[in-house]
Amino acid sequence: MKTGSAKLFQPEALFVEHEARDYPHTQEILARLTHLPVQFIDSYHNLAAQVLGLNRRIAEEKRSLILAVKKGELVKQVERDLFRPTPNEYYIIHSMGCPFDCEYCFLYDYLDHQRPTIFVNLPDLLARLHEVIDAHTGEGELVFHAGEFSDALAYDHLTNLSQPLVELFATKTNARLEMRTKSDYVENLLGLAHGGRTVVSWTFNANDVVKRIEHHTASLESRIAAAQTVQAHGYWVGLRFDPLVWYPEWRDGYHDMIAKIFAALDPAKISDVSLGVFRATPGLKHMVQQRVRRSWLLAGEMVLCEDGKYRYSKPVRREMYRAIVGWIRARAPRVKIESCMESPEVAAICESV
Length: 353
Description:
- By secondary structure, the protein is an alpha/beta fold.
- 32% of the residues lie in helices and 21% in strands.
- The chain has helices spanning 24-30, 54-61, 122-134, 156-159, 162-169, 207-213, 220-232, 250-264, 282-291, 314-331, 344-352; strands spanning 13-17, 38-41, 64-68, 75-77, 89-92, 95-96, 101-102, 117-119, 142-146, 175-181, 198-203, 214-215, 236-244, 270-277, 302-304, 310-312, 337-339.
- The strands form 4 sheets. It has an 8-stranded mixed sheet with strand order 4-5-9-10-11-13-14-17. The chain has a 5-stranded mixed sheet with strand order 2-1-3-8-6, with no helix packed on it. A two-stranded antiparallel ribbon has the order 7-12.
- α10 (314-331) runs parallel beside α11 (344-352).
């Protein structure tokens, strides 16, 4: 667990699908990993667990890398927020899994395994993005999220995916790219002609939470410094306070986080702020209980909500949102604030404070 910059992901085992071996993107990545022997496989779906014990299995899987060809949807319309309409929002499925180990990650209950997987059919992805964007004739701007099924920048030192994505969106007037990350690796973004069409978003958390729960990620200070760097290069920055974690000293921790962020960043170049509390499917809640004895994630009272996920009780959520939104408004009165996957009666706090 690092307290400064996130260590750049360097896999210890490398798997390549037979179908993926001749793709140019595969060859570019392999050229950066010449020290690793390549193990060819039929499908990234079918790698069985090699060790017993949940924590040991996850740790081993996250030390490997798979290069694969994505079948099916490369650009997927957002449909899973029960509480908020998302007609103009899409996910970019550039990879699956993540080398970071955030104990609350929904991918633990979503994926068959935790081996980071990069999809190498990049021309198909870029072509599909052009197709979806150019076909849009409706009202409103399209928003494309990179970082839903994997961190958007955790592999960028191996893939340089940010360059073709940023440059593509720079040519589109009706669409915006969001790259969401807990990394501090932004070198490939600097110097690109982004045209103001890319938002680089950081998931921020209180220092205590970062150190205790968000393993192998960049520290709070390093994320802030990276956000400051991309702002200096003309990018919009998004602030994602999600998930907010209740713990006994949460007020001190989150107040300190807000103070540090707004002391470093220009509020006029913050695109928006989103907030959401820790939430978990029954499967993820069970996995948290298996992985960590007396986890902070389960320290607050959890209730089952109408979308089938566990959250803190409404009084706790209201208290957390009211305090954190108030601290933000004191420093950035006009910044756009939204809630994420929150019931309307609780979400209203974000707009009314």
